[in-house]
Design goal:
The complex is a heterodimer. Chain A is mostly beta strands. Chain A is built from one helix and six strands. Chain A has one helix at about 45-55, and strands at about 15, 20-25, 30, 60-70, 75-80, 90. Classes of the chains: A mainly beta, B alpha/beta.
C-alpha cells in the first residue's frame, strides 16, 4: 500500500483500501456504517422510520463508519476508527 | 455595578456533596449554570447540584466564538433566540457582573444570488417576528465595516449582507462565572471533578445518579452535556439523534481595535470578531467526521484563514496564536432538543450544535421551567424529542446562515 505524505502535518489520515493513506480532505464522510434498511418498509411505523432516518450510533471509541474517496478513486469503503483518539483500527 | 475578583475560586463555594438533591444538573457549562440560576430565581428551587466532570465552564463554554444574534428564519427558532437576546440585554445588570456584552452588530455577508434572495427573505421573516434586521448593499456593507473588501476583484465578491445591529459578542468566561456566582449565592451546589457514571432508574423513573464521588439521590435529573449527551444518555438506555463533531476555532495575536462588528460569511465560510482584549476570534464549520478528541483537521483552519484574508486583506500578516476544537452535538435539523424524555423525571437539553452560546440565558430559562413544572415552556415545546418521529422538524440548516 502506497503512502503519500501530506504537505503539512495532520493527524487524520484515512486509509483508502485502494489508494493508501490520504488526508481526510480527499474524502467525504458517510457517517456510521452498518445501518440496516428496515426489513419490511411497508409496515414500518413512524417510530421505526425515525430511528432509521435520524438515529445513528455516536460511539466514543471504536466506531464503524463509511468514507468515499471523492478526490481519488471515488470508491466507498468501511473503516473502524477510534473517535476518542482518531486512531485507525484494524 | 461591582466587578468581582477575577479569581474564580472565590466567586463560589466549594461545598461538600450532599447525598440528596431535588434537582441534579449534569454538566456545569453555560447552559447548566444558567439552568441552575433560573431554577433558583424563577422557580425557588435551590436544593440543586450542578455536577461537572472537569472544571466549571471548561468545555464548549471555554471554546466557542461568543457570537450572539437572533436572526433565525423559522418562527420557533426566532422566538427562543430573540428571548435569549432580550435576556442578554439585561444580563450584566441582573447578574451584577459586567459580562462585556457588546451589541456591535452582526453582519452576514452574501456572495451569490441564491444567498442574496434567501437573506432578503430572512430579513423579512425576522422583521415579521419583531427582530431587527436590515439588508445592506455592498456600499452599505463597506460603510458599516470599512475593512471588508467589497471590490469586484474578489473571487466571490460581496453582493450585500444582512445586519442585526442588536447582535454582538460577550465574554464567555464572565458569563459562566456570573451565572455560577449568583446560583451559588442562592444555595445551588456547584460540584466540580465529579463525573456521572450511571443513573438509578426504578419503574421507568430516575431516582438518582451514580458518580465518581458516590451515589446521589435526585428528584429530577437534567442532562446538559452538549457533545457528550449521547454517551450520558446511553447509560440510561436512551438513544438521541445526535452526532458529535469537532468544531474548530482560532485566535490571532492581540491587535489594536480594527474590526468593529461581527462578520460572518456563509459562502466562503468564516466568522470573525475582535475580542475586547484585541485578538481576532475566528471559526467556520464543523469537521465532517464524528469525534470526541477536541481537535480537528488542519485544513479546516487553513480554509477559514484563507476566507478571512480574502475578505479582510489587512489580516494578511496577522499571526495565529492558537487553535482548538470543542465537541459539538449536532442534531438532524440543526435545532436543539430541550424537554422531557421517555424516562420520568429525566430531562434533556442538547443538540445546540454550533450555536449554543448565544442561547445560554434562554436555554437556562426554558429548561428550568421544563424541569420545575414537568412541562415544556411555550418556547421550547416545539424543540421536543418526538419531532423526529412526528416529522415536525425545525430545519434551520441553511436558514441559520453560517454554521450557527
Amino acid at each position: 500500500m502506497s503512502t503519500v505524505p501530506p504537505p503539512w502535518p495532520t493527524d487524520v489520515l484515512i486509509p483508502c483500501p485502494w489508494c493508501g493513506d490520504r488526508e481526510d480532505l480527499e474524502f467525504k464522510y458517510g457517517g456510521a456504517g452498518q445501518v440496516a434498511y428496515p426489513k419490511d418498509p411497508g409496515t414500518t411505523g413512524d417510530a421505526s422510520w425515525a430511528r432509521y432516518v435520524f438515529y445513528r450510533p455516536n460511539t466514543k471509541g471504536p466506531f464503524v463508519e463509511r468514507w468515499v474517496h471523492t478526490a481519488g478513486c471515488r470508491r466507498w469503503f468501511t473503516l473502524t476508527r477510534d473517535t476518542a483518539t482518531h486512531e485507525i483500527l484494524p | 455595578m461591582t466587578q468581582p475578583s477575577p479569581h474564580v475560586d472565590r466567586l463560589w463555594r466549594s461545598p461538600d456533596l450532599k447525598r440528596s438533591y431535588d434537582v441534579v444538573i449534569v454538566g456545569a457549562g453555560g447552559h447548566g449554570l444558567a439552568t441552575a440560576y433560573y431554577l433558583a430565581k424563577n422557580h425557588g428551587i435551590v436544593n440543586v447540584a450542578v455536577l461537572e466532570r472537569g472544571w466549571l465552564a471548561g468545555g464548549n463554554m471555554a471554546r466557542n466564538t461568543t457570537v450572539i444574534r437572533s436572526n433565525y428564519l423559522f418562527d420557533q427558532s426566532a422566538a427562543i433566540y430573540e428571548h435569549s437576546l432580550k435576556l442578554w440585554e439585561g444580563l450584566s445588570g441582573e447578574l451584577d457582573y459586567d459580562i462585556k456584552f457588546s451589541q456591535r452588530g452582526v453582519l452576514n455577508l452574501v456572495h451569490n444570488i441564491g444567498d442574496a434572495r434567501e437573506s432578503r427573505r430572512r430579513v423579512n421573516a425576522n422583521r415579521l417576528n419583531g427582530i431587527d434586521a436590515e439588508w445592506l448593499t455592498p456600499d452599505e456593507v463597506k460603510a458599516f465595516c470599512p475593512i471588508v473588501n467589497v471590490s469586484s476583484d474578489l473571487r466571490y465578491p460581496v453582493m450585500g449582507g444582512t445586519l442585526q445591529r442588536r447582535g454582538g459578542i460577550a465574554k464567555h468566561d464572565y458569563v459562566a462565572w456570573a451565572f455560577a456566582r449568583k446560583a451559588d449565592q442562592m444555595g445551588v451546589d456547584l460540584i466540580q471533578n465529579c463525573e456521572v457514571t450511571g443513573f438509578d432508574v426504578t419503574d421507568g423513573k430516575v431516582t438518582g445518579v451514580q458518580t465518581s464521588r458516590g451515589r446521589i439521590s435526585a428528584g429530577k435529573v437534567a442532562l446538559c452535556a452538549a457533545g457528550h449527551s449521547t454517551e450520558l444518555a446511553s447509560k440510561v438506555g436512551l438513544d438521541l439523534p445526535i452526532q458529535s463533531h469537532p468544531l474548530q476555532a482560532l485566535v490571532s495575536e492581540l491587535l489594536e481595535p480594527v474590526l468593529n462588528c461581527v462578520v460572518m460569511s456563509n459562502a466562503i465560510h468564516v466568522y470573525v470578531s475582535q475580542a475586547d482584549k484585541g485578538e481576532l476570534v475566528m471559526g467556520a464549520g464543523i469537521d465532517p467526521y464524528n469525534s470526541y478528541a477536541q481537535r480537528g483537521s488542519p485544513h479546516v483552519i487553513e480554509y477559514q484563514v484563507a476566507a478571512a484574508i480574502e475578505l479582510f486583506p489587512i489580516f494578511r500578516r496577522v499571526h495565529v496564536l492558537r487553535t482548538w476544537a470543542g465537541i459539538v452535538d449536532v442534531s438532524p435539523d440543526a435545532s436543539p432538543i430541550i424537554g422531557l424524555t421517555p424516562v420520568e423525571n429525566l430531562f434533556i437539553n442538547c443538540g445546540w450544535g454550533t450555536g449554543g452560546f448565544k442561547a445560554t440565558p434562554a436555554a437556562g430559562w426554558v429548561y428550568a421551567h421544563t424541569i420545575a413544572t414537568g412541562r415544556p415552556h411555550a418556547l421550547n415545546a416545539p424543540f421536543n424529542l418526538e419531532r423526529f418521529s412526528s416529522g415536525a422538524l425545525i430545519d434551520e440548516h441553511g436558514a441559520a446562515a453560517v454554521a450557527h
